[in-house]
Amino acid sequence: MNKIIIITGANRGLGKALVDLALKDDNTLIVSLSRSLHEHHEGISSTRLLFFKTDLSEPFSNAFLEQVESSILPDTVLYFFNNASIILPIAKMGSFKDLDIATSIKVNVQYPVNLINALMSRFSTHETVLVNISSGAANNPIPHWSLYGASKAYMNQIYKVLAEENAANNFTFYTIDPGVLDTGMQVQIRKNIFPKQDYFKALKDDDKLMQPEDAALKIFHTINYYE
Ligand SMILES: NC(=O)c1ccc[n+]([C@@H]2O[C@H](COP(=O)([O-])OP(=O)(O)OC[C@H]3O[C@@H](n4cnc5c(N)ncnc54)[C@H](OP(=O)(O)O)[C@@H]3O)[C@@H](O)[C@H]2O)c1
Fold first, then answer.
1. What is the pLDDT of residue 227?
2. Structure confidence by residue, pLDDT tens digits, 207-225
3. C-alpha pair distances (Å), 177 with each of 60, 94, 136, 139, 215
4. Which residues' Cβ are closer than 6 Å to ligand 1?
5. Which residue has the least CA distance to atom 11 on ligand 1?
6. Domain coordinates of the chain in residue numbers?
7. Residue 63 pLDDT more than 70?
8. How far is the CA of 13 from the centre of ligand 1 (A)?
């Protein structure tokens, strides 16, 4: 395999679009760490798409790494897309349950940081591209999005520090805000009452949301995937 792509949240939304794009290249193996498989991906050979049923709110498991190790060749480029994320609960601080806070941090921060740590430990000799799917909410304080925005800011900072730490080796880091996408996350946003709800409803009504397929292609170009 020329490329191995490890991706979280590959069963729908932007993650599925990234997988569909990667599947067009016969020499790419996709390793999906997701809670389910999209129906379009059922029946795809495990030589192209390996599915590891993974709930990111559970403790980190590095079981998938052995499979990656057995498929990787000296010149394989390894990609990791930190894609899965949860925006809920959209609510004011003071109203969260303990579990809401814990789950947001586990899914958006704890699991992906463990994953990055494990990848960087095992694949230090391979060209490795780590892509952080971020959000404007990492920098803009959107009321009622404190948990989501803070988790996105945490991952942005991790990537910035890692880029500094690894300036002269085989690891490359990208943090990419994909734009406002026509996915399940926007459905959840529109369903919740918060100060900017009308703004997000208008984006949908005015047909201003980006399709995940277009965002995925833009991301592949940004990371020079086709070079
Ligand atoms: N949509 C936007 O407007 C927008 C804007 C800026 C940035 N982003 C970013 O883009 C990325 C993709 O978002 P999206 O729009 O595609 O969102 P989405 O449609 O809501 O998809 C979220 C993905 O995360 C997975 N996920 C959630 N909780 C999980 C868990 N506990 N374990 C494993 N997987 C879990 C979901 O899988 P399940 O089906 O199992 O829940 C799904 O695959 C995210 O990082 C998001 O922050 C999105």
1. 87
2. 999 999 999 999 999 999 9
3. 25, 28, 6, 11, 10
4. 8-9, 11-15, 34-36, 54-57, 83-86, 107, 133, 135, 177-178, 180-181, 183-186
5. 83
6. 3-181+212-222
7. yes
8. 7
